[in-house]
Input
Amino acid sequence: MVRSTYQPSKNTSFHRRLKATIVVLLVWGSVSLLHWLPETQWLMLGLTAVLTVQTLRMLLAKPAAVVMESEIYLPPVSILAFRLKMKVQS
Output
């Protein structure tokens, strides 16, 4: 019998929380900086416009019907009938 030599670190949850906190602070700081600097306000306005248009396109688009030709020729299958047939055979 082979025993596992893997031993989890006791500080794993602390390091994960620390990394998550750093990432959240970096993202928050970057977005805040983009909003505060006058040079980047046009960039944010343009990005907001593009994302708004894409969101509207996604919400207003009609889903395309997917028809697979192979499904047309498949016979109907009843799981109940299959189970009854298997029960009768055994």
